Protein 1
Amino acid sequence: MIPPDDTKSEMEAFEAYLKEKNLKITSQRMLVAQKIFSTHSHFTAEGLLDEFKDQRDLISKATIYRIISIMVEAGLLQEHDFGKDYKYYEHIIGHEHHDHIICVQCGRIVEFMDKNIEDLQKQAAESKGFQITGHSLNIYGSCNNISVCEFNPANKK
Amino acid sequence: MIPPDDTKSEMEAFEAYLKEKNLKITSQRMLVAQKIFSTHSHFTAEGLLDEFKDQRDLISKATIYRIISIMVEAGLLQEHDFGKDYKYYEHIIGHEHHDHIICVQCGRIVEFMDKNIEDLQKQAAESKGFQITGHSLNIYGSCNNISVCEFNPANKK
DNA sequence: GTTTGTGCAAATCATTTGCACCGCG
DNA sequence: CGCGGTGCAAATGATTTGCACAAAC
């Protein structure tokens, strides 16, 4: 389906990290990383697992979670909390920093980035005596084309 | 400890909501609401439960969760996700809208509010075709007085 | 060959729920 | 009374972990 496009440099970064940490390069790690780097959207652990359902028994749920954890640790994957009881992830390389708008009706996730907001956040934190290490800004709202939204489960197939 | 200060109007709002929804006014609901309205900080379900540990068996864990749920539904309590695997809450009446800065070292939570950020968020969402229903902005950083921070577990007693 | 990884099933942990009994209205 | 509320213990669901076997180096 998705061609193993420009994931080379990302795969190399991952392998470099594994070597640096004396972790082994296994087929599962390579397959999962390949899949993640070629997915240009937000995904969940469960969703990632499903991607391997066809090649049944290829990669277990525990391993998926363990690999995700390593990649987050490596700084290659960002974890997001969008108010659900499971986490979302997206790979970082090649993606500029951005925040998210989540449609409360259909679940669609749109990215945006506003330099002014970033600057004001920095100011706000510093004025309270904090040094920023990160932030999470999620805007919830309704996208105005629910009836046609391809992400709306109600509109599936 | 905390005097049952200015919680009258808030208790009235809660009772009004219960009546409106044909829900009953029970001693548990009144006690929990009273405790919540007189707590001017962020708390967790578990922490709230602890507040009743002395009057042992007075209120069960299940009831705490059920009452919190009603109060969130009533719009009297706001739910927050600060990246932990449990939720934080704070009561709304008498509290202007604000966002949060969380110290990654000691867990201290500081509130702030920046009208410019709010406006820019609205603009950003609208430019993507969304109508905002809410947002969550959490800034993570380190407060620069860890060694004396009263909220730092390491500094307890 | 060791050490680290994987799969499986069982364990966690916050939160939710089924059910029998209890108390508000 | 009658229905919603409560407590308890068991269920849930995402994520984690212990352990025996396998694969990487």
Protein 2
Amino acid sequence: MPELPEVETVRRGLEPVLVDAHFDRVEQRRANLRFAFPERFTERLTGQRILSLGRRAKYLLANLEGGEVLIMHLGMSGRFVIQRPGANAQRPGEFLNEAGNTSRHDHVVFFMSNGTTIIYNDARRFGFMILVDADELENHKLIRNLGVEPLGEVLSPAYLAARCVGKKTSLKAALLDQRIVAGLGNIYVCEVLYRAGLSPKRAAGALALASGAPSQRVEKLVPEIKAVLEDAIEAGGSTLRDYHAPEGDLGYFQHSFAVYGREGLECARAGCGGTIRRIVQGGRSTFYCPKCQR
DNA sequence: AAGAACTCCTGTTGGC
DNA sequence: TGCCAACAGGAGTTCT
């Protein structure tokens, strides 16, 4: 499901109900998601107070008072649902499928000391939760190879050019590579390349000059990465199929897509007149305008 | 060693 | 209407 803007929206939704609360009880309803749950997962959480809820790339990081960090990843279909104390126990209608029930995909339930119940639901089970010592977090194999946060100062044209020098892989694949820029996913890469006027098929190495210095292309690209993500966060992320923020709110950035999901439609760029195409790169859909993205 | 292909899993959708 | 292949916001692992 979620790329950086959706994960950040989820983080902001969970923060007020998680931070400073304790886990009164944790229900773990299966042995694994994408990975096995940690040993004694529920025992290690129970009674712990959450000091803060952070985000790195598409990972949510709950810092626990006892010194461990609960790392949560939503995969493709993971989501959190918050039930307020005293609220009708009925799940929000938006979440009900034709059978009137999605509870078979409710894999983890947090019962918090402030009375809220937080349900982790994940139909495809590509998400996961693990626990690591706070001191080990930066060295953890899932974290240590992540590239820069796209919204931080560190992502500059010079950085991206340096990371792409000599790369023969496509610009699309390079931007999806979490080791280079951490947090972009399939939708936002398409949107970024459109805004920057760059073909997704172009070699990533074209972002650097022969000297390794940033090219004009990357000077254009980097500000668009930041702008698209900021716009999407501002909009509460994108709602496709079944994505919801934890309170059930819908994001609305999907109404701003210029290319994603728009195959066959006319390019919206003034004076372009091209037609949006869908191609497959690395087994995933890429949407772009062949006329104005070069 | 880079880059591409394959894999995990379930639900929805679109074409016949 | 029903059936079934294609596709879905991710990314670790395995190949070439």
